[in-house]
Specification:
Helix content is 20%, strand content 19%. Strand 2 and strand 3 form a beta hairpin. It is globular and about 65 Å long. The C terminus is likely disordered. With 454 residues, it is α/β, with parallel strands linked by helices. Helix 3 packs across helix 4 and helix 7 runs parallel beside helix 9.
């Protein structure tokens, strides 16, 4: 079923307007109809505050200026929201706690620290027990990671520890993430490749790959995320959401009027099997923007909520060695691809490559397209493959040479030496080059436009 998720907690409307009467309302206000299915409560914006406890901030609803904290900590007591949470859950809504956000002070030094923090989250917000539960008796439905800085250390261990609790629980819990659309995401890329997520809310705003370039093959990149979902994610059933700003004041770029967003959602739903729905920033903005959330949900319902029929591979088959002008379309490896510019290489999910997958299609299920068939070196040869560089970014399937061996990346990596204990590289064996290895060309920089939420 296609669903709609809206973040709640930061009063984005109040941060950009002065009409106090329309500032963010309490949680239950946004659960009165079917417009919103999932509500990530935002944010825990600091992992270790006073008393080593997490810090929670919920904008105008629960904050340190008007609400008390648990003794010896900086953790807010927002237990008055328990009834709201339970009311929303009784109407079938899923409510999670979101960690991070723009400008947050988050991150771990080690896996063991991350596992201990997972224990804290389980006990304070989910199915565990403690004397410092911010929402009292209410039990949230999972955790959302909106990590936008602070490194990747420990997050896989954090998720794994939470999953160990979930596996023995009496209710369903969820893990979601909110990467930037720039692929791979600088903060969550290696994490979502390593552990299973139920859904990712890709932020197609405040980024060069946002909704404002939906009709540009060199811009909007949902197809890259679809390939990730189907061939790289540990959970092959993970759903990918189109993240959208809920009004023109909710983000610096990416906002689309309701009709345009409806077209984007319907088109994406009909092209990609991993599509799960829409995510919005945030509930307060959507409600005041003429119920932008309801318009989007109606579009999802009209598009059909279940099942996926692969469209035909209607473009000409890709031919190895041919040259294709910009905007050419070809069918290859279960996708229709469009050339971003003049293209002579094989279509792959390289975000900096010549091609963009614009639709899945009715062909064989895709294999990993990071390194295309027929373009890799022959056995025993590493001719044409650049030497590994500690500064280069590699995605799953890309190759490098190191110490006389050919190596293939299993997933997103940067700075991890081939053959090290990290285990991100597959050793394809010794190889030789027909010419002396040249220093690798500098990788095309990935400069995501990070979204710092208000």
């Amino acid at each position: 079923m296609l669903t709609s998720a809206s973040y709640w907690g930061q009063d984005s409307y109040g941060a950009t307007h002065t009409d106090v009467a329309n500032y963010q309302k309490t949680l239950s206000f946004y659960c009165q109809d079917d417009a919103i299915d999932v509500i990530p409560i935002a944010f825990i914006n600091k992992f270790y505050g006073t008393g080593n406890a997490p810090v929670l901030d919920l904008g105008n609803t629960c904050n340190t200026s008007i609400d008390s904290t648990f003794s010896g900590t900086g953790l807010l007591d927002c237990s008055f929201l328990a009834t709201d949470i339970q009311t929303c859950q009784s109407k079938g809504k899923v409510l999670t706690i979101s960690l991070g956000g723009g400008g947050a002070s988050v991150g771990f030094q080690s896996d063991s620290q991350a596992e201990a923090f997972a224990d804290t989250i389980w006990n304070d917000f989910l199915g565990g027990s403690s004397s410092t539960r911010p929402f009292g008796s209410a039990v949230l439905d999972g955790v959302d990671l909106d990590i936008e800085q602070g490194g990747t250390t420990g997050y896989a261990a954090f998720v794994t520890r939470l999953r160990s609790y979930f596996n023995g629980a009496s209710k369903k819990y969820y893990i979601t993430g909110a990467p930037q659309c720039v692929y791979p995401d600088a903060s969550l890329g290696s994490v979502i490749n390593a552990v299973a997520f139920d859904a990712i809310y890709v932020q197609f705003y405040n980024n060069p790959c946002g909704l404002q370039v939906f009709n540009s093959a060199s811009g909007f990149n949902f197809g890259i995320w679809d390939i990730w979902a189907r061939t790289i994610s540990p959970n092959p059933n993970v759903k990918v959401y189109v993240g959208a700003p809920a009004s023109s004041t909710a983000a610096g770029s990416g906002y689309q009027d309701p009709a345009t967003l409806a077209n984007i959602l319907t088109t994406t739903r009909n092209r990609f099997p991993s599509f799960g729905g829409v995510m919005m920033w945030d509930a307060s903005q959507a409600y005041q923007n003429n119920r932008y959330d309801l318009a989007a949900k109606n579009a999802l319902v009209a598009a059909g909520g279940t099942g996926f029929t692969f469209p035909a591979c209607s473009a000409q088959a890709y031919v190895q060695g041919n040259n294709y002008p910009g905007s050419s379309q070809v069918s290859y490896n279960g996708y229709i691809w469009e050339a971003k510019w003049y293209a002579s290489s094989t279509p792959t999910n390289d975000p900096n490559g010549d091609w963009m997958p614009i639709s899945a299609c009715a062909d064989n299920a895709p294999s990993s397209t990071s390194t295309a068939p027929g373009t890799g070196p022959t056995a025993g040869s590493c001719s044409g493959v650049a030497a590994w560089s500690s500064s280069a970014i590699y995605t799953g399937g890309q190759q490098a040479t190191y110490n006389g061996h050919l190596w293939t990346a299993k997933w997103w990596t940067q700075g991890d030496v081939p053959g090290s204990s990290v285990g991100v590289w597959t050793d394809d064996g010794a190889c030789t080059s027909s010419k002396r290895e040249e220093a690798p060309a500098a990788a095309r920089p990935l400069t995501p436009s990070r979204f710092f939420r208000l």
